[in-house]
Design brief:
By secondary structure, the chain is mainly β. It contains one helix and nine strands; from the N terminus they run αβββββββββ. The chain is 13% helix and 69% strand.
Length: 213
């Protein structure tokens, strides 16, 4: 009788110990690791190069009586740099500056060579990000160096006004950005040489490549 009771107790103890060991094994087993690729963010600084075509219109007035209009079309090439901040709702705001060289000299009033060479801007940007695609608008202040040349005269004047446009940025990688942009710039009216005022405005289409930090 005692042997039977002892055997039954031993069996019961063994079953309990086995169940407890199984529970401990299940609790101690580490869950499988799950790796997630972090979402891309537009927050950060960037610097890049850009180039394209510019279509500039110039209207010159001589001594307040004679008016001449000319197209100052040509290429643009330069660089840009800025900083973006991205919010959780996908809105991106930023600030950007650029400087570029314009090749657009033309003749006006017969023998007078007129054009702009260096131009630049400081602008704000607001956009919406869809993962690696950013659609943005931009506006701010712009400046251009206008010049006029003819016999015995070589003058330069700084023109300033406003610029606005829109474009798209696309992140090819986490560090490399591709850009397409259109901008309109009104450089204002200036007396470029005594007795002669000129008004410049320009439309430009540019593509760019940038590095994000």
């Amino acid at each position: 009788m005692y042997k039977i009771i002892a055997l039954a107790s031993a069996l019961a103890f063994s079953s309990t110990a086995a169940a407890l060991a199984a529970d401990l094994t299940e609790q101690e087993a580490a869950p499988p690791a799950v790796f997630q690729t972090p979402a891309f963010t537009w927050t950060g600084a960037y610097i890049g190069i850009q180039g394209g075509a510019g279509w500039m219109d110039g209207t010159a007035t001589k001594f307040g009586r004679y008016t001449a209009k000319q197209d100052f079309d040509g290429s643009v090439v330069g660089g840009f740099a800025g900083y973006n901040w991205q919010f959780e709702n996908g809105i991106v705001v930023g600030v950007e500056g650029d400087i570029e060289y314009n090749s657009n000299d033309e003749k006006i009033f017969g023998n007078k060579t007129v054009g702009t060479d260096w131009a630049g801007s400081v602008r704000g940007r607001v956009g919406y990000a869809i993962d690696r695609l950013l659609v943005f608008g931009t506006a701010g202040w712009t400046m251009a160096n206008g010049h006029i040349e003819y016999p015995c005269v070589d003058e330069n004047q700084k023109f300033s006004g406003w610029t606005a446009g829109a474009g798209v940025d696309y992140a090819l990688t986490d560090k490399v950005l591709l850009r397409g942009e259109y901008r309109y710039s009104d450089f204002g009216n200036k007396e470029i040489v005594r007795g002669m005022n000129i008004d410049f405005d320009q439309s430009a289409v540019k593509v760019g490549l940038a590095v994000k930090f």
